[in-house]
Amino acid sequence: MRARRQQWSSAAILAVAASMVLPAGGTAQVQASWILTRGSGSALADELHERAAALFTQPDRYREAGNLLVRAAHARAEDDVASVNELIVAGKLFAYANSIGIARRTLEEAAERALRFGDVVRAAHATLDAAFLAIQQADRNGVRELSARAERLAAAPHLSDTQRADILSRINPDRLAAARR
After folding, report:
1. pTM above the 0.70 mark?
2. For 107-152, how does the pLDDT look when each residue is reduced to its tens digit (9 = 90+)?
3. Do residues 20 and 132 touch, judged by C-beta distance below 8 A?
4. CB count, 10 Å around CB of 17?
5. CB neighbourhood size of 96 (10 A)
6. What is the pLDDT of residues 21-36, one digit of tens each?
7. Checking DSSP bridges between strand 34-38 and strand 12-16, what pairing results, if any?
8. Domain range for residue 123?
9. Taking Cα atoms as reference points, which of 59, 142, 126 lies closest to residue 99?
10. CA angle, corner 103, sides to 86 and 34, nearest 5?
């Protein structure tokens, strides 16, 4: 039992359950809504992840935690889906730290990795998180391109109606209108 607990704690992957929403000031505290999943992970990736997790309660160190998670994701094997979770959390931490450009690139990388694993739903949501950040960057073309990419992902034939609706409901017409101006 102890070994099992130790396995879970050393390879726990924390994924933010909430969607990407920042208050008007552009910063937020990470909510304690974490989903734990077991990664196949290398020792280095697990160590980096644990170091990042120790910083999750310190908003002034979110950028550092994000960097550690990106390093952990890159240290994992190509077939380790845990890297997607780490990149998504890292992207959100960067956004909370107001490092919008890094956050956007990290979320776009997470979306690409999720697609490689066939996880269209997570790819679409990470893409929409990146589109939200493109709005903050006043990148109209980026907003259009990322929103269109998410819409194409939502059209995947194997998605349920609920999954499709969840993705499409995040493509806010007001955001698209703002990008077209």
Report:
1. yes
2. 999 999 999 999 999 999 999 999 999 999 999 999 999 999 999 9
3. yes
4. 10
5. 22
6. 333 334 343 433 333 3
7. antiparallel
8. 10-180
9. 59
10. 40
| Residue at 170 is within a domain | yes
Note whether residue 4 is domain-resident: no
Q: Cα angle at 167 between 56 and 69, to 5 degrees? A: 25
Residue at 26 is within a domain: yes
- Split into its structural domains, the chain has a count of 1
Q: Residue 63 is part of a domain; what is its CATH number?
A: 1.25.40.10
Contact yes or no for 179/144 (Cβ under 8 A): yes
As beta bridge partners, residue 36 has: 14
SS (H, E, C) the chain: CHHHHHHHHHCEEEEECCCCCCCCCCCCCCCCCEEEEECCCCHHHHHHHHHHHCCCCCHHHHHHHHHHHHHHHHHCCCCCCHHHHHHHHHHHHHHHCCCHHHHHHHHHHHHHHHHHCCCHHHHHHHHHHHHHHHHHCCCHHHHHHHHHHHHHHHCCCCCCHHHHHHHHHHCCHHHHHHHHC
Q: Do the Cβ atoms of 145 and 112 come closer than 8 Å? A: no
Q: Tell me whether residue 83 is in a domain.
A: yes
Q: Which residue is it, tokens 């990146």?
A: 130
pLDDT above 60 for 7:
no
